[in-house]
């Protein structure tokens, strides 16, 4: 943790007598941060953003994992859908904003749908890969012990595929944050992205910088939370890998 | 199970694409979706053909690809260099670990307002976003790659008195190379996403700006046609980087192992 502090201190010190309009002293940015992100503003702008983010992300996770298991288990379905999925994944998600605006207007629904539509592909494709890679011996053993139906999916397939699913969820998280901001920059009346663009347009530079810093902190905090959750959920997998490494 | 019963995957894939086109044609034709929102596939294709006949479209495509290529090049060069230096000096590695972890998850779009202020709607805006986003992909992969160097090979090189340059060239680089390629592959698609996002949101010249223009002038089929083009670009870039990787790393265990299985 030394270097970030040194960097911040360096920025603070070097920028202290900055006259530049675009790069104000960090001291000014900090003051602006304190004045700008008051509780009422957090409630009015940050909370709606986060709610859309979580709604979209959770929906995308449900849809992605559900469809991914179905597609991963069915060879023919996979062959039919593979090119389509590859194509949809390759579309840069932000271009979906204008399309979804056509269907869903510019309300909360639009933003949630945009996030779902952008996030679902990495989750879906990673789930498909994970389900495909389930050990055949494990599957046969489960069958021999009479584990079938829903139990086969929840007890055998999902746990085996979970490291891969976690990879998809991690990729989707950063896409979700990007889309949250983009959809609000495009058309919104509140939200973090909207507020930052508003500051930029009115040349409130220190406030704009404080928004950028807040977004950075948010991205960092969310990825930290994700990593904690992942480490908890996949503890068995880390242990397995460590054991294999020792044996190998 | 014979392969005939399973069906040929390529054929099934084509059937899937054809099915999608039919559905996209029928949904608006049957009135299930308003054709103002989703025009029939045939009209999107017609709009695509129209676009392909205009010079503006090709200029926009060129602008996008130019920003993508330059941004990717800068990001890869900087990422590889920084990764090799940071990765091979343990002190630097320990010092920067938390900084990398802190800076990487900052969403690149947070820089959009800054880019607008600094460069307006010029190429620089796009480049700033592309470089920032692509750089981390490369850097992190290179760091993994450097950490993967076999200690025995490293110590052997040392006892044979390889120079620093020799160790980098003959031990570090070949080990890190597959990781570098993974990084480049990831960075190439991220760079495309960011290039088009920057054009869409900021209005820098390129396909993204054309999409925004089409949306504002209510040219819905053209908008869909341009989105299809961006998707096709993405697929193409994926395919190219993947084949390039396989070609250039044909000697490497990771690729040879794949072939053997």
TrEMBL record, chain A:
Cellular localisation: Cell membrane
Classification via InterPro entries: MetI-like (IPR000515), MetI-like_sf (IPR035906)
Keyword annotations from UniProtKB, A to Z: Cell membrane, Membrane, Transmembrane, Transmembrane helix, Transport
Domain of life according to the entry: Bacteria
PROSITE patterns given in the database record: ABC_TM1
Membrane-protein topology: Multi-pass membrane protein
Pfam family membership, one: BPD_transp_1
Coiled coil: none
ABC transmembrane type-1 domain ranges (all copies): 46-230
Annotated transmembrane regions: 54-74, 95-124, 172-197, 209-229
Family: Belongs to the binding-protein-dependent transport system permease family.
Protein name per UniProt: ABC transporter permease
Lineage, highest ranks first: Bacteria, Bacillati, Actinomycetota, Actinomycetes, Micromonosporales
From TrEMBL, chain B:
Pfam families linked to this entry: BPD_transp_1
UniProt KW keywords: Cell membrane, Membrane, Transmembrane, Transmembrane helix, Transport
Sequence intervals crossing the membrane: 12-32, 65-90, 102-121, 127-149, 170-202, 222-241
Protein family (similarity comment): Belongs to the binding-protein-dependent transport system permease family.
Organism field: Actinoplanes oblitus
Membrane protein topology class: Multi-pass membrane protein
Protein name: ABC transporter permease
Gene3D superfamilies, A to Z: MetI-like
Highest taxon listed in the record's lineage: Bacteria
Signal peptide region: none
Stretches assigned to the ABC transmembrane type-1 domain: 61-241
CDD domains to which the protein is assigned, alphabetical: TM_PBP2
Localization: Cell membrane
């Amino acid at each position: 943790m030394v270097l970030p502090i040194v960097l911040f201190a360096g920025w603070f010190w070097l920028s202290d007598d900055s006259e530049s309009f675009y790069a104000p002293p960090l001291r000014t940015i900090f003051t602006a941060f304190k004045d700008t992100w008051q509780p009422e503003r957090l409630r009015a702008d940050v909370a709606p953003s986060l709610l859309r983010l979580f709604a979209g992300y959770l929906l995308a996770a449900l849809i992605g994992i559900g469809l991914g298991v179905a597609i991963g288990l069915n060879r023919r379905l996979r062959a039919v859908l593979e090119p389509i999925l590859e194509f949809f994944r390759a579309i840069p998600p932000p271009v979906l904003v204008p399309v979804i605006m056509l269907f869903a207007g510019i309300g909360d629904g639009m933003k949630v749908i945009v996030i779902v539509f952008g996030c679902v592909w990495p989750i879906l494709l990673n789930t498909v890969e994970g389900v495909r890679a389930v050990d055949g011996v494990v599957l046969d053993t489960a069958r021999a012990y009479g584990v079938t139906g829903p139990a086969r999916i929840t007890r055998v397939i999902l746990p085996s595929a979970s490291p891969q699913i976690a990879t998809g969820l991690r990729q989707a998280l950063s896409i979700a944050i990007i889309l949250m901001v983009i959809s609000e920059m495009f058309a919104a009346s509140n939200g973090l992205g909207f507020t930052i663009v508003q500051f930029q347009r009115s040349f409130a530079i220190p406030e704009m910088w404080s928004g950028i810093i807040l977004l950075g902190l948010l991205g960092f905090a969310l990825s930290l939370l994700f990593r904690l959750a992942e480490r908890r959920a996949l503890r068995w997998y880390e242990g397995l890998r460590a054991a294999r490494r020792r044996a190998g | 199970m014979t392969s005939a019963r399973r069906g040929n995957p390529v054929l099934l894939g084509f059937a899937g694409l054809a099915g999608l086109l039919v559905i996209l044609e029928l949904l608006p034709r049957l009135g299930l979706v308003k054709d103002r929102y989703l025009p029939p596939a045939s009209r999107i294709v017609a709009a695509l053909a129209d676009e392909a006949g205009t010079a503006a479209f090709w200029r926009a495509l060129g602008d996008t690809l130019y920003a993508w290529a330059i941004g990717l090049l800068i990001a890869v060069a900087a990422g590889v260099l920084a990764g090799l230096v940071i990765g091979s000096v343990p002190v630097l590695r320990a010092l920067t670990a938390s900084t990398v972890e802190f800076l990487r998850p900052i969403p690149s779009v947070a820089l959009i307002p800054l880019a607008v202020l600094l460069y307006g709607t010029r190429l620089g805006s796009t480049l700033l976003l592309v470089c920032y986003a692509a750089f981390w992909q490369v850097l992190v992969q290179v760091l993994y790659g450097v950490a993967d160097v076999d200690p025995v090979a490293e110590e052997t090189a040392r006892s044979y008195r390889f120079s620093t340059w020799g160790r980098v060239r003959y031990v570090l680089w070949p080990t890190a190379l597959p990781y570098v390629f993974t990084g480049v592959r990831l960075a190439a698609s991220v760079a495309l996403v960011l290039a088009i996002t920057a054009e869409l949101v900021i209005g820098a010249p390129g396909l993204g700006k054309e999409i925004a223009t089409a949306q504002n002038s209510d040219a819905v089929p053209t908008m869909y046609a341009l989105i299809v083009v961006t998707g096709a670009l993405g697929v193409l870039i994926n395919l190219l980087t993947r084949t390039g990787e396989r070609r250039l790393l044909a000697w490497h265990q990771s690729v040879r192992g794949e072939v053997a299985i």
